[in-house]
Structure formats: structure tokens, C-alpha cells
TrEMBL record, chain A:
This is ABC transporter substrate-binding protein. The keyword Signal applies. It is found in: Periplasm. Its main location: periplasm. It comes from Alsobacter ponti. Residues 1-25 form the signal peptide. InterPro entries: Peptide/Ni-bd, SBP_5, SBP_5_dom, TAT_signal.
From TrEMBL, chain B:
It is a multi-pass membrane protein. It comes from Alsobacter ponti. Residues 95-300 form the ABC transmembrane type-1 domain. Keywords: Cell membrane, Membrane, Transmembrane, Transmembrane helix, Transport. It is found in: Cell membrane. This is ABC transporter permease. CDD domains: TM_PBP2 (cd06261). Belongs to the binding-protein-dependent transport system permease family. Its main location: membrane. The chain crosses the membrane at residues 12-30, 101-122, 134-157, 177-197, 235-257, 285-307. It holds the Pfam family BPD_transp_1_N.
């Protein structure tokens, strides 16, 4: 007979055994990743939102090449390639045995289809410019594609590794926005709009087997909610954590790992170079000197951002440190403004788009400008209106924005771009760069371009946007940096 | 009664027509372009033009208005620019969260407010009354998102009884879905219940001083009996009015709570759509919300008639 005592002892034993066996006793095979913004749809070849790449890049969709965690270019769906001596012909040897998730084989036809679709007249590819150098795409045989360029293009292999250049199947491309079918290690499973997205393992993946069976992306836009979700264990990782102010709390908690890495986000205060008084280089230099970069980084970014002195990310090869070009100097700034005839109390419109870095930096910079006699009127603006008013119609004096495209020095050579910089010398430099293939020469040109932008004080170069990630300390393999918008889960695993 | 209903229905149709014009024009003058938002900062002008063409944004405004309104009359609300999904489908998904949440919050509000308000009125100036008035004052003043954070800290992070947010969907069974709605419903109900309890109290106090209540007491009913049999029902009219307003608010105005608990509700759908200039979603959802508010008011009017038979006969 079961006595009361044995019963009690028995249940205590059972209970303590149960509590000694945590739920993850067998290494977990799934991960729940928090993302701040929900993607509008899932086709990276038809939308610019970073949130698209953050779900599908490298997980669902792959390109001929791919960008790795250190911003290097690696083979992906192309096993190898041969480049002609004149740099104009690329012959790609494709991966054998790769298939799309719907069973369709990956062939040269799919590559031709995808590239032709991206550069067609009615293309809606957000990065159509990347495909502009392509003269023709020819299928040599099922596993070989020849791409002929109009001119040598230094960044071509990098460009074809971008999210907007992934390969879609002709059979399923039309529905890719809602049913993405790629060649990657994860298949798209379901999307509960407004809440979460689920990917599952693709058993027929051509590449090295992944360690996860399932990945769920949870959309959590609110900073407080993302804090609560991590603390409550509702999500395992927030690779791009939105609120730097609480990072110390996570650092103090052994359950979490806080990793601060880089993005390619050159954060600038753009000046409308085409408008008075910013068409005067003295004014632009004065404003550059009036901004105390360190105070902005400490105040707006909690000190975790790296300063920049030109439009170039410090981690990229070819970087030149120009942060000392315009040291913070109120007296000199005032003198320059006076010389240029900018009266004390001149009003300037400082437009701030929604991201926190812009709003916070803007408040600080406005108060700094006051010290040199500039009245910066802060105009907060939502994203769609910013795109239309500032970016397209150039209706602004100053604005703060982060340019996240990697190696985008060429934007300063564009006609009619929003900061309206019109330097023929710079354009000539970019023209030379785009056809230069020799790496040493390229790096030298990068340096020249950076120096020219800093000399001309085109914009106020503030800092490189940091990426702070918070995740479960037992989770391995997430990227520290984000050279392109993505959450590559192919190497993610739980530690036993 | 039929006349009453018909007149209300005609008014309803006219309000909807007027609302459709206002909503459409508001979206027309809103700066920003869905094609620009979708293609971002690196897009070429010809790409934006191609997408505008694809979305049908180049057609005259009048044509688009007619197409939109006739579509709605046929139950077709268009296709979202950004999601590439029909607006009907998007709304159907969100209503599965917003409607149960609103109902749950309203039920909690009513269950708390009516007895509490009645007790406060019945024991006017007692310690209980003062306590209730104080508590409801706090309930109205506390911002509900802050209260929501406290709830999360206690029940999700410390006690781990309830999820900190998110919505698993009804497919996962009613229990996990309801669990996900408990904290948001409580956070929403607290200020609403505080308002409603105060309305209940003052309305009841007013009826309690009416002649017929005195007559009821004179013919021998106890204070409690007079309150239950005569005063309560008459005091409910202002309470119903407020409840109607509260329900409309709970259906569409819960965006802050939806953000705190990252719930996929209607409020967030509209907010996101405005940011992305997904005008077709904004227009259609706003119209649906206008229609539901009008409908709720209509139901409240009918409820008056149930509570107060005199209103039925009035022309």
C-alpha cells in the first residue's frame, strides 16, 4: 500500500527530476528571431524594404554569388566563374543538383530569366541599376551561363550577390511576393501577417546541411515589447535590436549575449548643395565644424557608433580616416559663416525621418548649430513624405539619413540626386572607378573619392550606424555585422 | 418602429457616401507615393514609373474613385499595393484578433463597471464610494500602455503565466489564443471600466432622486429593491451610449496596446498601411470602420428602445 510518506517522497523525486531536465535537454532544432519591421512582401527583386532581405536572403533565395558575414563575395549558385581578359565576359559554371523548392531544377534558363526580368523595360527591381551594365545573358548549356557586359564593371560579382539579384524560377516568380520559391536551405512555410513568418528546412538543399529544422521570425516593432519578448523567452534572438538604452541590462544577464557590430550605414546630415547658402563651400565647411560628432554619438547613439569623416565605412578596404578634417571649432565656424554672409539667426529647415538615430541626432545637432548662430527648425517627417519631399523634390535645407547600401560612392555622381552635388572632377573619378578592375588601383581611387567628398564638405559625415544584436547565449552562428540586409541562418545552431 | 429603423438606415447610407468622399480625398492629398516607398532610395525614375503604371496610379482620380466605390458595393475592396493580397483577406485576418479583443475588453469593462458604479451610487459618500471614486480616478489617469507594461513585467517576465505578446492564431486552439488576449484586454478595460463606472454612478444617482423612485419607496420597497426594480434600468441609457462609443474605440483605436503586445490587429494594419502609402488598404479599412461605428450606433439606438419602451413609440 502506498503510504502517505512514500507518496510525498515519490512526488518530490519526480518533481525534482522534471525540473532538472529542462525543455532543451535535447539540443533545440528551432529558433525564434525577432525583427522590427514586417516585410511588405517576400520578393527581394521587387521591393527595396530591408525587411524582405532580413527574412529571405541566403535562407530562401540565393544568387549566383553571395555576400558572406565579412562582406566578402563567395560562390553560391555559381560554383565558379571565368572572367575574360577585358573584364567584359563572365562565364558562370552553375551548381549541379540544385533545385527550387517546388521541385523545378535550377538551370541556366532560370539565371537568364531572372537577369532579363530585372533589366527589362517594365522591370520593378529596386536595384535595376545593378543590371544596367549587362549587354546580354546567354545560355551556353544547362549548367553554364555567359554574361556579357557593356563595359568592365568592378563590382559586378558583388552586385550579383545582393538580395535584389537572387535567382527565381520562371514557373514561380510571378507569385514570389506571397509564395517565395527559391533554392535556399529553408523553404517558406507560412506567414501570419502582422505576427510571424515561418521557414522550415529544405531536405533537398544542394549545400552543406543546416542544423535547424525550423525558423520563425516574429514581428515586434515596439522597443518595450522587444525587451519583454526577449526577457520572457518569447524570442531567442533580436539580431538588430532597436533600443541601445537597455543593452546594459542584457549585458548584465548571463542568459543573453550582446553583440555590437557594423552595418554599411553611413549616417550623414545631408545639405542641399544646390540651394543657398549651401552652394557656398564655406558654409558647408562651417556647418561641418559646428557639429560636435562625439557629442552626437554619445548623446544619440549611447556612444556605440564609430565616427566617419567621409562617405565610406571604416571596415571596408580602401578606407581613409578623414574624421579629423573638420575638428569641432565654434569660433572658426562662426568666422566662416560671417565671411560667407550668413547672418546670425539664419533659419534652416532640418528634416528628420522616423528612425530613432535621425530624431535623436537631429535634436542634438540643432542645439549645436544654435551656438554658431543658426536656427535649425526641426521638421519631423514620416518616411513616405520624406521620400517625396526631400529625396525626390529636394525641398529641404538639412536632413539626417543613413545610407545603408555598401560601397555607394557613386551616388555623389548622380544627376539630380537629393543633395545636388555637381562636381565634374568627382564624376570623372567615378567613371574611372567603375571600369577599373585592378584591386590596388580601385582602393586608391576609393581613397581619392573619399578625400574629395570631405574636401568639398558635401555633407556632414556623422557616424557609421552600429548594429547591436541581443540573443540567447547558447545560440551560435548569427552574424555580428550586417553588410547587406539579411539574417543568414545557415550556420545557426544551439550549443548543448 | 419600422419607420424609425428605415430613417436610421437612410441616414446610415448617406453618412457612408459622405465618408467615402472624405476618405478618398484625404488619401489623394496625402504626400508620398506607394511606388516610391516600395522601391526605396536606390530606384531609378523609370522603375518607379513602371511600378506606378502597374499599380494603376496613373489613371484619373475620378475613375479610381468610381472603381473603388463600385467595388466595395460588390464586396470587393481591392488588392493591397504592398502585400499583394486582397484587402478582404487582410481585414479578415485582423478582425480575428481585433473583434475578440474588443469584445473581451468590453465584457470586462461592463462586468467591472456596472456593479462597481451601482455600489458607489447606492452607498453614496460611504468609504466604499470614496474608495471607488479614487480608484476610478487613477484608472482614468494611468496611461494604458504603461499599465500594459506593468502587466507584462508581472505576469510574463516575473511569473511567466502569460505570454508577453504576439498572437498564435485561432488555428492553434482557443486556449492559447485567449491567453494571448488576456493581458491586452485587461489593459484596455481598466480605463474604460473606470470611465463607465463613473457614468453608471452619476446616472444612477440622478434616477435615484427621481419622483418615481420616491414613490416606489413610499409604497414600501426597500432602497435596494427600488434601485434594482426601477432605477437601474432607467440609469442604463447614458451607460449604453458610452458603451457604444467604447466599443467603436476598442475595435479600431487600440493601436498603442497592439504595439505593446505586438498583436496583429486592425489598428496596426492601418498604421502600417499609412506609413507605406498602401492607400487602398487605408481607404477600405477606414470605410469598414466607419460602417461599423455607424452600425454600433444603430444597435445602441435599438437598445435604447429596448430599455425604454417610450422611445419605440416616439416618431
Amino acid at each position: 500500500m502506498l503510504t502517505r510518506r512514500t507518496f510525498v517522497t515519490g512526488s518530490v523525486v519526480v518533481a525534482s527530476t522534471l525540473s532538472a531536465l529542462p525543455a532543451w535537454a535535447a539540443a533545440r532544432k528551432d529558433v525564434i528571431v525577432g525583427v522590427r519591421l514586417e516585410p511588405p512582401h517576400l520578393d527581394p527583386t521587387a521591393g527595396a524594404a530591408a525587411a524582405i532581405g532580413e527574412i529571405v536572403y541566403a535562407n530562401v533565395f540565393e544568387g549566383l554569388t553571395r555576400i558572406d558575414r565579412n562582406a566578402g563575395v563567395k560562390p553560391a549558385l555559381a560554383e565558379k566563374w571565368d572572367i575574360s581578359a577585358d573584364g567584359k565576359t563572365y562565364v558562370f559554371t552553375l551548381r549541379k543538383g540544385a533545385t527550387f523548392h517546388d521541385g523545378a531544377p535550377f538551370t541556366a534558363e532560370a539565371v537568364k530569366f531572372s537577369y532579363d526580368r530585372a533589366r527589362a523595360a517594365d522591370s520593378v527591381n529596386p536595384q535595376k541599376a545593378l543590371f544596367e551594365p549587362i549587354e546580354s545573358v546567354d545560355v551556353v548549356d544547362a549548367n553554364t551561363v555567359k554574361v556579357t557586359l557593356k563595359r568592365p564593371t568592378g563590382l559586378f560579382l558583388w552586385n550579383m550577390g545582393m538580395p535584389a539579384a537572387v535567382i527565381l524560377s520562371p514557373a514561380s516568380a510571378a507569385d514570389a511576393k506571397t509564395k517565395p520559391i527559391g533554392t535556399g536551405p529553408f523553404k517558406f512555410e507560412r506567414w501570419s501577417k502582422g505576427t510571424s513568418l515561418e521557414l522550415t528546412r529544405n531536405p533537398n538543399y544542394w549545400g552543406p546541411a543546416i542544423k535547424l529544422d525550423k525558423a520563425t521570425f516574429k514581428v515586434i516593432g515596439d522597443s518595450q515589447a522587444s525587451f519583454a519578448a526577449l526577457m520572457a523567452g518569447d524570442v531567442d534572438a533580436f539580431p538588430i535590436y532597436p533600443a541601445p538604452e537597455v543593452l546594459d541590462q542584457f549585458r548584465a544577464d548571463p542568459r543573453f549575449k550582446v553583440v555590437v557590430g557594423n552595418t554599411e550605414g553611413k549616417t550623414i546630415m545631408a545639405m542641399n548643395n544646390g540651394r543657398k547658402p549651401f552652394d557656398d563651400i564655406r558654409v558647408r565647411r562651417a556647418i561641418s565644424m559646428a557639429v560636435d560628432r562625439k557629442a552626437v554619438i554619445d548623446g544619440a547613439m549611447y556612444g556605440i557608433a564609430k565616427p566617419i569623416g567621409s562617405h565610406f565605412a571604416p571596415q571596408d578596404p580602401g578606407y581613409v580616416d578623414l574624421t579629423g578634417k573638420y575638428p569641432y571649432d565654434i569660433a572658426k565656424a562662426k568666422a566662416l559663416l560671417k565671411e560667407a554672409g550668413v547672418a546670425e539667426g539664419t533659419k534652416m529647415k532640418l528634416v528628420l525621418p522616423p528612425p530613432e538615430y535621425a530624431r535623436r541626432s537631429g535634436e542634438i545637432i540643432a542645439s549645436q548649430l544654435k551656438k554658431v548662430g543658426i536656427e535649425a527648425e526641426i521638421v519631423p517627417m514620416e518616411w513616405a513624405q520624406w521620400l517625396s519631399d526631400v529625396f525626390k523634390q529636394k525641398n529641404y535645407d538639412l536632413t539626417i539619413i543613413s545610407h545603408v547600401e555598401p560601397l555607394d560612392l557613386d551616388i555623389y555622381a548622380r544627376d539630380d540626386y537629393y543633395f545636388d552635388y555637381k562636381s565634374q572632377a568627382y564624376r570623372a573619378l567615378m567613371a574611372e572607378l567603375s571600369v577599373t578592375l585592378d584591386q590596388a588601383k580601385r582602393l586608391e581611387l576609393y581613397g581619392k573619392a573619399q578625400t574629395m567628398l570631405a574636401d568639398d564638405a558635401v555633407n556632414v559625415f556623422l557616424f557609421l550606424l552600429p548594429k547591436s544584436g541581443v540573443w540567447n547565449a547558447k545560440l551560435k552562428g548569427l552574424w555580428e555585422n550586417v553588410p547587406i540586409p539579411c539574417n543568414d541562418l545557415t550556420e545557426v545552431a544551439w550549443e548543448d | 418602429m419600422l419607420d424609425f429603423v428605415l430613417r436610421r438606415l437612410a441616414g446610415l447610407a448617406m453618412t457612408l457616401a459622405a465618408a467615402s468622399v472624405v476618405v478618398f480625398l484625404a488619401m489623394e492629398v496625402l504626400p508620398g507615393d506607394p511606388a516610391e516607398v516600395m522601391l526605396g532610395t536606390n530606384a531609378r525614375p523609370d522603375t518607379v514609373a513602371a511600378l506606378r503604371q502597374q499599380m494603376g496610379l496613373n489613371r484619373p482620380a475620378f475613375d479610381r474613385y468610381v472603381e473603388w466605390t463600385t467595388g466595395m458595393l460588390h464586396g470587393e475592396f481591392g488588392t493591397s499595393y504592398t502585400y499583394s493580397t486582397s484587402v478582404r483577406e487582410l481585414v479578415a485576418e485582423r478582425v480575428q484578433v481585433s473583434l475578440p479583443l474588443a469584445l473581451l475588453a468590453l465584457a470586462l469593462t461592463t462586468l467591472i463597471a456596472i456593479p462597481v458604479g451601482a455600489i458607489a451610487a447606492a452607498r453614496r459618500n460611504s468609504a466604499a464610494d470614496l474608495g471607488i471614486m479614487g480608484a476610478t480616478q487613477i484608472g482614468i489617469s494611468v496611461p494604458n500602455f504603461w499599465f500594459a507594461m506593468l502587466l507584462v513585467l508581472l505576469f510574463s517576465i516575473t511569473l511567466r503565466w502569460l505570454p508577453a505578446g504576439g498572437f498564435p492564431g485561432w488555428a492553434a486552439g482557443p486556449w492559447p489564443a485567449l491567453r494571448a488576449l488576456v493581458l491586452p484586454a485587461v489593459a484596455l478595460a481598466l480605463p474604460q471600466a473606470s470611465i463607465l463606472a463613473r457614468v453608471m454612478r452619476s446616472s444612477l444617482l440622478e434616477t435615484l432622486s427621481d419622483d418615481y423612485v420616491r414613490t416606489a419607496r413610499a409604497k414600501g420597497l426597500s432602497a435596494g429593491q427600488a434601485l434594482r426594480r426601477h432605477a437601474l434600468r432607467n440609469a442604463l441609457i447614458p451607460v449604453l451610449t458610452i458603451m457604444g462609443l467604447q466599443f467603436s474605440f476598442l475595435l479600431a483605436g487600440t493601436i498603442i496596446i497592439e504595439n505593446v503586445f505586438y498583436l496583429p490587429g486592425l489598428g496596426r494594419l492601418v498604421f502600417q498601411a499609412i506609413n507605406q502609402r498602401d492607400v487602398i488598404v487605408v481607404k477600405s479599412v477606414v470605410m469598414l470602420l466607419v460602417a461599423s461605428v455607424i452600425l454600433v450606433n444603430f444597435v445602441v439606438d435599438l437598445a435604447y428602445a429596448v430599455v425604454d419602451p417610450r422611445l419605440r413609440k416616439r416618431r
